[in-house]
Amino acid sequence: MNENAEQGRDADRTQPVESGSPTAPTASTVPLPPAEPWLTPAPFGAADTAGEARPAGRAPVRWGGVVWGALLVLFAAGTLWVLSAPSRLAAWDLWVSTLTTATAWALGIAVVGMVIVVSGLLGAIRSAQRRRVGG
């Protein structure tokens, strides 16, 4: 590239755009306001504090996260324990291969039942926490 061509491009960048020129902003290039203003985030510092009001004191324990996290840790520890020794892995393989369709369905139903029971207990704990904070 030669020096004159570069200066010509730089001159184009620094000159103001005339209103009649094809590069002037038109109505189609001006940003429009959002169609759903309730989806627009609020400006910084304008948060609604009415919904965030909490009584002074300690934050409540999120027992759902604690219990589900503990169950996940137990499942992971059991899986690692089985996979850490070839004899336990062989025993697992033998046990799984001897399952019948009926016993597999029974185990699946038992697992779903356990999830339902744990969810119910956690719902009861959450309800008791709400009553204690509210009353």
Automatic annotation (TrEMBL):
Record field: compositional bias (Polar residues): 16-29
Basic and acidic residues: bias regions: 1-15
Tree of life domain: Bacteria
Membrane-crossing residue ranges in chain numbering: 63-84, 104-125
Region feature (Disordered): 1-57
Keyword annotations from UniProtKB, A to Z: Membrane, Transmembrane, Transmembrane helix
Keyword flag Transmembrane: yes
Protein name: Uncharacterized protein
Source organism (scientific name): Leifsonia williamsii
